[in-house]
Amino acid sequence: MARMQINRFLDSLQTVSTAIEACADEVLHAGARIVEARMRSNLQQAIGQGQHPSRPTGQLLSTLGITSVKVNSGGDHNIKVGFAENRTDGRSNAHIANVLEHGRSNQPAHPFLAPTRSQTRAPATKQALAARISQVQP
Predict the structure, then answer these.
(1) Which terminus of the chain is more solvent-facing, meaning fewer CB atoms within 10 Å of its CB: N or C?
(2) What residue spans carry the region label Disordered (predicted)?
């Protein structure tokens, strides 16, 4: 009898684990969509801004996206909004984004990451919670 109850308990734990995986994916994607839309908007405003003419190629904007949900060794679910690598000219998109965000000695900074973080923290959290609540309701 005890063996049967333990097996049922283990089966129910497996079912809950599968449900959490599916729930985490949907909730994280809901929040990431908010962040990605705002980051795209802020990046479009930052590119080509300034006194001197620029030569935007559109590569940085076109590589902006959301990764799939990954689980780290601690069991935490993570999703990232960022840039795919590399550009057609061989340079890193991370380097180009860093120069755009912080500037150089001969180029002023045009921040788009920091404003995105401050503008989306509350809306992304609310959207993720709303996605979770809609899953729980019958």
Answers:
(1) C
(2) 102-127
